[in-house]
Amino acid sequence: MQKPYVYVTRKLPEETLNALKEKAEVGMWPHEEKAVPREVLLKEAQKAEGLLTMLSDKVDGELLDNAPSLKVVANLAVGYDNIDIHKAKENNVTVCNTPDVLTDSTADLAFALILAAARRVVESANYVKEGKWNSWGPLLLAGADVHHKTIGIVGMGRIGEAVARRANGFDMNILYYNRNRKPDAERNLNAEYKDFYDLLKESDFVVCLAPLTAETKGMFNREAFQAMKKSAIFINAGRGASVDEEALVDALQNGIIAGAGLDVFEKEPIAVDHPFLTMNQVVALPHIGSASVETRMKMAELAGRNIAFVLDGKAAETPVS
């Protein structure tokens, strides 16, 4: 009996797909750092019963309506705004993501951005590498303290709570904004709920970890940045489209806020001539929130298991629809 066909849209370590290969014939785009072309994805989807996709792959109505055998799409991410969930449901296609396994790694990265932006780590490292360090000065590359400051977390999901746990280790005052109150977080993490603009006004570090929804798209706009302290540092490890980047550029160039640490952007990869890349007060990373070897291996294994389960007639481990 012929095995069902599954297409993987980015090169993954072969050993992460062992469970999937027992159930399916697996085709894989052979590049790790180059996205699968749209025409290749559409062609492969036409014959696939399963797709293992990245956030950069658009699984939209065009693809779904031309994939008659497709049963499951497993996204290698927590987010899934690249997938038309409603159309997938209409077409009886199960959609899965990879929550939980990347929570701590992403929280580590978010906190690394806080430290890097506050203490001017990247700027200082470049200062040494460029041969500019000729003597010591009392305020040479002096940044801002993180300990005992106020952190405002926008989006108190699993990753937000993990960031709050790290903030407790720095004796920070923790504020949060979320569409729903989180009494357990308030009790266990000493976090205080604030409405959005009160959080912006009171926080030294504003950390965006919100999912991308109609409500959160562009929520960090000119009005939001103007509400922040002039000394505030904005961190985004959530979704790039939550930010009006033109407004953020203006806020940074005009001293409305002090700095930013960004792992996600409206368009990825970010253009080499983007204004963010000219600013010393901006730490810009290539969307590496969950990019530890251990976590990425677990994500790939989970995505593979999800597809294998659905193809075997079982419920997916982590379905979103």
Which helices and strands occur, and which strands form pairs?
Elements: E1 5-8, H1 18-21, E2 25-28, H2 38-47, E3 50-53, H3 61-65, E4 72-75, H4 85-90, E5 94-96, H5 103-118, H6 121-129, E6 150-154, H7 158-169, E7 173-177, H8 183-188, E8 191-193, H9 196-202, E9 205-208, H10 222-227, E10 233-236, H11 245-253, E11 259-262, E12 282-284, H12 293-311
Notes on the structure:
By secondary structure, the protein is an alpha/beta fold. It has 2 domains: 5-101 and 293-311, Rossmann fold (3-Layer(aba) Sandwich); 103-284, 3-Layer(aba) Sandwich (Rossmann fold), CATH 3.40.50.720. The protein contains 12 helices and 12 strands. The protein has helices at 18-21, 38-47, 61-65, 85-90, 103-118, 121-129, 158-169, 183-188, 196-202, 222-227, 245-253, 293-311, and strands at 5-8, 25-28, 50-53, 72-75, 94-96, 150-154, 173-177, 191-193, 205-208, 233-236, 259-262, 282-284. The chain has a 7-stranded parallel beta sheet, with helices on both faces. Helix 10 links the parallel strand 9 and strand 10 (233-236). Helix 5 (103-118) packs across helix 7. The longest helix is centred in the C-terminal third of the chain and has 19 residues, at 293-311. The model has no long low-confidence stretch (mean pLDDT 97).
Question: What's the quick description here?
Answer:
Belongs to the D-isomer specific 2-hydroxyacid dehydrogenase family. This protein has 321 residues and is of the alpha/beta class.
Indicate the percent of residues in helices. 25-40%
Number of strands: 12
- Major beta-sheet overview: 7 strands, parallel
CATH architecture of the largest domain: 3-Layer(aba) Sandwich
Can you list the strand order of the major beta sheet? 8-7-6-9-10-11-12
User: In CATH, what is the class of the largest domain?
Assistant: Alpha Beta
> What value does the Rg take, in angstroms?
21 Å
Task: Give the overall form.
Answer: globular
CATH topology of the largest domain: Rossmann fold
Average pLDDT confidence is: 97
Question: Stretches where pLDDT falls below 50 for ≥5 residues?
Answer: none
CATH superfamily of the largest domain: NAD(P)-binding Rossmann-like Domain
